[in-house]
Amino acid sequence: MNSLKRTARLSSTLSALALVGGMMGATPALAQAADDAEIGSDGGAGIVVTARKRAEDILKVPVTVVAFSGESLEQRGVFSVVDMATATPGININNSSSGNVSRSFQTIIMRGFTPSNANASTTSMFIDGVPVQSPSQLTSIAGPERIEILKGPQAAYFGRATFAGAINVVNKVPTGEWGGQMTAMYGTQDSYRLQGAVEGPIFGEAVTFRVTGEKWKRGGTWTNAFDGSRLGTQSSSVATALLAFKPTETITWKVFGMLGEDKDGAPAATRVNFRTVTNPAGQVIQTNQSNCNLTGNTVGVPGFGVATTNPFYCGTLPNFADPISANTADTDALRAYLSGTGRRILSPDESVEGYGLLRQSRHAHTTLDFELSDSLTASVLAGYNREVFSTLLDLDGYDTSSIPFAANPKGYWDFPFLVERKNQDWSAEGRLAYDSGPLKALVGVSFLKASSIAGGGGSFSALPTNGSNFLPGDKGQNETFGIFGGLTYEVADGLTISAEGRYQSDKVSIITGDIGRTITAGVFVPVGTYAAGDLLAQRTYNNFAPRFIVNYDVNPDLMVYASYSKGVNAALNNANILGASAFVQQAAADADGRLLINPDTVTNYEVGAKGTLFNGALRYSSAIYFAKWKDQVNALTIAIPDPTATTGFSFVNVSNNTGNVDMYGIEADLAWKVNDLISIDAAGAINDSSIQSFRSTIVSRLTGVFDFRGNENKQTSKYSANVGVTFGGDLGGMDDASWFFRTDWNYKSGMWTNEANTTKTRGRNVFNARASITKGQVQLDVFVNNIFNDTNPATVADASLFTTTFAFTSVPNSVQLGLPERRVGGIQAKISFR
Description:
Helix content is 8%, strand content 52%. By secondary structure, it is mostly beta strands.
């Protein structure tokens, strides 16, 4: 069966590759008469990107890059990272992790490279080329100059954790003239957005500034059947400040700072369950929607365990049968628990005050460019990030208020669970760039020190105010030193060869948290008492990540390229194992859990073409890639019978290098200015995967599958597309007046819930529309997002089903769905001044 599946999928993908290959081969004849010209706002000739740490025309850089200008983001109504991912083929954002669906666990999945958990990112984000540790820090995009999405390994210039790609937000540089804008939006479902920006001179053009402030809210479009409240409410506040110093023509120094805060209510999430849950009166409160029985295995290890029968859903998931609900009552006992300080990662003023999320982030960076001569430039970058979040979730995920339970102060059975995390890092980079004639060269050094600590706790009975049931983890720390460089040489007219690479040394450490730790089981660390800040384990990983590119200008309107690159992801740890009992630690070790995990690697082969047609009216780019993902880090969630645990089970989440996957696909985009009235932009991607080896005890316990060869990665869309059509021009009979109407179709195909490929979601078709009139400095927009009210899930994950007996937690007995925002309309006014 797997062989037939592989053959069919390979055949369909090769057919698509051949079709695009034919299109690429036909472009030179069509482009013979084309001239250089500027085209649409998304980056034709004239859009400059910094994919290789230097300014290059997007049509001439031999890397797959998607660029959104600030104007384009505004026309599309994009003002968050989730909006951007929805509008970009080949990208998914997953908010599901360990029973939670919220912005606290956002991971960016590019080209189908699904990370094992929220801490194993395969795509990194940057502001002006300076790393931002967590993707969730950029929940808002406050009026940037542009956003660059770089696909494929970018380790040579952007370092580790750019395994599948990188996203770089480029700030607007203030000029020596006063200017700014104010924007106000109000929409249905109690949504609003307020934004303001001011820029101008402090000392002429020598010292300029730009400050922005933004606050937005999405009121939640789903109703909680428990109490009638809204689920999925989100709000963010962001303030930024940028100072630009240009004392001479050869020196540019920029200082940027950003403060952000996110306050969300309980998330919009539900489950499709595969067991029936009833209350004591016999009333069904969770419906069994299973349609098949999987023959699982009690331990999930080949040659061990016995067969089990696990009800599940095979095929494409149906609509969820039960009302969306969560127990979100904020009681005095709950507030007392959240205001406690014992054993907590965060202080009470950084803690959430009820169900939902509170995140506070700080970012600062500086960049200095010094032109030493006409051909030599020195640059220095330094950055700092701090992010803390706490989220309180209803772990069972449904209304249990009809199940009496005297031990819980609420009077009914419920399982609130608190998760906290603190991320912090600082980085520095220095480089020299040479550009003269046919030769371009760059050499640099970089250093990054990052740390993260997390903890969690909850109970279905009384919550202790001293935090005795809160389990703080140990601190994970990475110190990464890198040396990188690149040479680009035009060996003949139109033929250019580039050789790039980065050598990096990544020292991974596990350090005890604030309360120290006593190790009583010597499974992973010697037995002993360790004070706060003591080193528990450490290992250094050394890797070299090269990239070689050959590109050729067939004619002024067509460039083709081929590249080979290698990526190395960040090394991870399983520090959470150390908090478990000796019995659980040994069980984790027997399941191949390790304390320190080797970094996974990827080798990527890519060919592409970029160019213009019809005298520059149409811009296009396309790429075909094949990548071998080795030593893939996968999560092993282990449920261990434990007589010392209240529930009778201990749950340990560990990760290990248990996979190898072949990744291949095709991506293309175009922007076409049809005439003065109509512009069309379109993009599409086929991002396929074929698992070569994989091991997961939890998936095998559920499905009984041990041979995953030929299956596809989970939680990513194989097919995705976007088409946008814009009509616009001057308003006849009015001076200084214009209008536009834009409509977008965004498509993401369904996603597998696990690597056994038993269960899949339905695809999403989201249509948006926006109409705008501008008169002088005033602009008025009306919009509708998700016009046809597509409610298919945006994220998905296999999940346990919690009951009073915990009978359905040893293997997944449900699928957790992250629900999208439903249809929202609104009006927006913007006033600009210059």
